[in-house]
Amino acid sequence: QVQLVESGGGLVQAGGSLRLSCVASGLTFSTYAMGWFRQAPGKERVFVARISRSSGRTYYADSVKGRFTISRDNAKNTVYLQMNSLKTEDTAIYYCAADANAYGSRDALAYEYWGHGTQVTVSS
After folding, report:
1. C-alpha dist (Å) from residue 59 to 21, 26, 33
2. Do residues 70 and 58 make contact, with C-beta atoms less than 8 angstroms apart?
3. What is the secondary structure of 13-44 as a DSSP string?
């Protein structure tokens, strides 16, 4: 059974930082591209960042470029999202997802497996 478990969310003031982690089990982690998405209250789930199987390529939504960094440790079956210079508009539930394609996608439909999410709240 595949599981993706996110952690690291919480309440932080604007300008602060958080590091999200997502630990995967039940799949061969290194063969999946990984993505982070987020969903704010009353809004659709949107792409945040993705990383290829081997960490060779990373991609970001324009709204987080330069502030967020995605990385992975295949030995630990873990993908990370380092979030700096947080803004109130970053408040959302953050989800990690696994895509069997090499480079992942901005399209949530491309991802086969999803975690249950972790709440990030940025206060002003």
Report:
1. 17, 25, 11
2. yes
3. ETT--EEEEEEEESS-GGGSEEEEEEE-TTS-
Quickly tell me which residue has 């958080």 as its tokens.
18
Q: What is the pLDDT along the chain (124 residues), one digit of tens a residue?
A: 999 999 999 999 999 999 999 999 999 999 999 999 999 999 999 999 999 998 789 999 999 999 999 999 999 999 999 999 999 999 999 999 999 988 889 999 999 999 999 999 999 9
Does residue 51 contact residue 71 with C-beta atoms inside 8 Å? yes
**Quick one: how far is CA 68 from the chain centroid?**
10
Say how far apart CA 23 and CA 84 lie, in whole Å: 21
- Tokens standing for 122? 């940025």
**Model pLDDT, residue 106:** 92
Residue 3 tokens read as 């599981």
Q: State whether the Cα torsion 1-97-99-27 is positive or negative.
A: negative
DSSP SS3 for 73: strand
